[in-house]
């Protein structure tokens, strides 16, 4: 008696017995709720943010936060301080995002809005 192997079709791969079908594969889903409320104050709490520039400063800070993979929920610029609530990216620490926003907004207020002499 002669035993021969069955010929296999090389163009079609047989699924491995160890692999799960595609509909049973579990995907890792991550949820990060890293909410932080920041309050930035002007130097000596001097009111240097006029009402006419409040919206521009708020939009600028919103752009900085969004550009750093975070989400801004609320912001309000008072004449001597700014409040904002964000959900930050887990890639950034609270100190990291605070430094980025503080340095960028300080440059924006001092240079673009010309508050140097006020």
CATH class of the domain at 35-112: Alpha Beta
Using the 3D structure, state the CATH architecture of the domain at 35-112.
Answer: 2-Layer Sandwich
User: Could you tell me the strand content as a percent range?
Assistant: 15-25%
Mind describing the biggest β-sheet?
A: 3 strands, antiparallel
Number of helical runs?
2
What is the fold named in CATH at topology level of the domain at 35-112? Alpha-Beta Plaits
Q: What spatial order of strands do you see in the largest sheet? A: 1-3-2
Radius of gyration, in angstroms, nearest whole number: 28 Å
List the helices and strands in order: EHEEH
Uncertain spans:
none
Helix content: 25-40%
- Mind telling me the CATH superfamily name of the domain at 35-112? Transposase IS200-like
Give the terminus-to-terminus CA distance: 104 Å
Task: Give the oligomer, counting copies of the same chain as homo and different chains as hetero.
Answer: single chain
Name the structural class.
Answer: alpha+beta
Shape from CA axes? elongated
Q: How many strands?
A: 3
Mean pLDDT: 81
